[in-house]
Amino acid sequence: MTRPGAATPLVSTPVGLRYGLIPVHGYGIGGAVVSRMLDPRGEGTARLLHPNESIPYGALPVLLAETTVYGASCVEHMLRNWTSGLPRPWLVLLSDAPARPVPAARYRIRALGSRLAGVARVPYLPVLRTVEGADEALEHKDVRAAAEKLRRRMEGN
């Protein structure tokens, strides 16, 4: 129930929004870069959603998490509260180190697979530690290559 005078967010259709990105454990350069990876021309086809913002109608929800046990547990918590009225989300895992995720994180993500539309992985990109923003990150060939692979994976090509 809302109180009188409170603004209630309405579900709207932003022009061309295809991906609504939900960072499951905080905002950072990784989320900003994935948003730009999925929207290479800056046309507004992908954007980070604000906390408690509704998923815009027609947009595919995309959960963003790091490949840590904490990230996997945040994904699990988010999916426990996911309602059946929403489309199954994609999960984009951002590698936090140049090594495979630990077994506990891999197992938990694998166990949650049936609740997801798909899982895409972004490799460890050390350049993200040195850039000020997503546009600067996309100037690097490793980031552009990872972006191309991410788009192909999520678009089914």
How are helices and strands ordered from N to C? EHEEHEHEHH
Mean pLDDT: 89
Computed CA radius of gyration, to the nearest angstrom: 16 Å
How many strand elements? 5
Low-confidence parts lasting 5 or more residues at pLDDT below 50?
1-9
The portion of residues assigned to helices is: 25-40%
Structural class estimated from helices and strands: alpha/beta
Number of helices: 5
* Terminal-residue CA separation: 44 Å
Strand arrangement across the biggest beta sheet: 2-1-3-4-5
**For the report, how would you describe the main beta sheet?**
5 strands, parallel
Beta-strand fraction estimate: 15-25%
Question: What would the principal axes of the Cα set say about the shape?
Answer: globular
Observed structural traits:
single chain; 157 residues; alpha/beta; 5 helices; globular
Q: How would you characterize the overall build of this protein?
A:
- The chain has 5 helices and 5 strands; from the N terminus they run E-H-E-E-H-E-H-E-H-H.
- With 157 residues, it is α/β, with parallel strands linked by helices.
- Helices cover 31% and strands 16% of the residues.
- A 5-stranded parallel β-sheet has the order 2-1-3-4-5, with helices on both faces.
- Helix 2 packs parallel to helix 3.
- It is globular and about 40 Å long.
What's the structural blueprint in terms of helices and strands?
Layout: E1 19-23, H1 29-37, E2 46-48, E3 60-66, H2 69-80, E4 90-94, H3 103-111, E5 118-122, H4 134-137, H5 141-155
Parallel strand pairs: 1-2, 1-3, 3-4, 4-5
Helix pairs in contact: 2-3
